[in-house]
Write a structure and sequence with these properties.
The chain has 342 residues and is of the alpha+beta class. 47% of the residues lie in helices and 9% in strands. The protein has helices at residues 10-14, 42-55, 59-68, 73-80, 89-96, 99-111, 113-123, 127-138, 149-159, 164-180, 203-209, 225-238, 272-277, 310-316, 322-338; strands at residues 147-148, 189-190, 248-253, 270-271, 280-282, 291-299, 302-308.
Length: 342
């Protein structure tokens, strides 16, 4: 999901959906690459004591759950893998701007029209943006990940030192959310990093921003599209979405353009006039005092320049990549066109 601390982005989480959740690979008869029973891990023992003291959990229950958790080497391999070669915008955009993803968005919108309309009315976030987020994250729920969330979070909390504090916190939040939602920690599947559901929410994000939009008493972002829709919309509202305001405006850069702030993911803090002084001008009119951020993408026909307004910045709260935010926005507009909403 979503709120991703320490710049651990949703785009990383969602890749898991495409990875096989394979079982331990046999090495010799009776042996395997991964092991079961995290209850005896030294760090897990400390975690159990903290959970009992801090959150009032039963030691016996925690031991019982962690006995069933398995270390998955495939999870460590996936998260340790060097980042893929950076893509340019002309390479990145076609991943999402394809007919199947647009058609899938139209289908999802039609199937969930009433809930999307209700979410838009309640949270002020356009239906097409909600649909596009779900489409980019999990292909409208088709690729939510196949790992047991408990396996993913215990593996990374106790056997991946580089990010252990982050995942230990997420494991704590996972136990809390399953208690709050009256479910077993063994019930849910997600990505190799523990991101869950249609919108790929991490446990801490789930507890802060996921909502029971269907009103059935369980915030089910895995199987209930209504809850996933409401949760994405609530996340955007809580991260500063401005109803009815634009997202991006195309810009033009002069030959002598100079700006150290270009491509910075920061809250919009420079006005259009200030950017104009640095050689970047909006192609369509914006009030000169409008605060925006500016980006340069390498497009099919050369450099593209864009201004991002507050709503663009809000999309980057879901994933810090400006190309991700632009892909979500452009996909949303293509889906909207196909729905006949323009």
């Amino acid at each position: 999901m979503v709120h991703l601390k320490n710049s651990f982005s949703i785009s990383v989480f969602k890749r898991t959906a495409r990875l096989a959740s394979f079982a331990c690979l046999p090495l010799l008869v009776g042996s395997a690459v991964c092991s079961a029973d995290y209850s005896q891990h030294p760090e897990a023992k400390k975690f159990i004591s903290e959970m009992v003291a801090k959150n009032g959990f039963s030691r016996t229950e925690l031991v019982g759950w962690l006995e069933k958790a398995e270390k998955k080497q495939s999870i460590i391999d996936a998260i340790s893998r060097p980042a893929e070669q950076s893509k340019t915008w002309k390479e990145y955009r076609p991943i999402f701007m394809v007919p199947t993803r647009i058609e899938g968005g139209v289908k999802f919108w039609r199937e969930n029209r009433s809930e999307l309309e209700r979410a838009e009315a309640q949270f002020g976030v356009p239906a097409e943006v909600i649909v596009a987020i779900i489409g980019v994250e999990t292909g409208y729920g088709k690729n939510m990940g196949g790992y047991n969330v408990l396996d993913a979070l215990t593996t990374l909390a106790f056997d991946y030192p580089a990010r252990a504090p982050f995942f230990r916190s997420e494991l704590e939040n996972y136990f809390l959310l399953t208690r709050e939602q009256k479910h077993s920690p063994l019930d849910f599947k997600g990505s190799y990093a523990g991101a869950m559901g249609y919108g790929q929410f991490m446990p801490s994000s789930y507890r802060k921003w996921a909502v029971d939009f269907s009103g059935d008493g369980f915030t089910d972002i895995w199987k209930t599209p209504s809850d996933a829709i409401g949760s994405v919309a609530n996340y955007f509202k809580e991260h500063g979405w401005k109803t009815g305001e634009p997202v991006t405006v195309e810009a033009h850069a002069s030959d002598n353009m100079k700006s150290e702030q270009l491509n910075s993911i920061v809250p919009p803090n420079q006005t259009v006039d200030q950017w104009r002084e640095q050689g970047i001008n909006p192609i369509s009119w914006l009030p000169p005092t409008t605060r925006v951020i500016a980006f340069q993408f390498e497009g099919v026909n050369g450099p593209e320049y864009w201004f991002g307004l507050q709503n663009f910045y809000t999309i980057t709260r879901y994933n810090r990549s400006p190309m991700y935010a632009m892909a979500v926005y452009q996909l949303s507009q293509s889906i909207k066109v196909e729905m006949g909403k323009i």
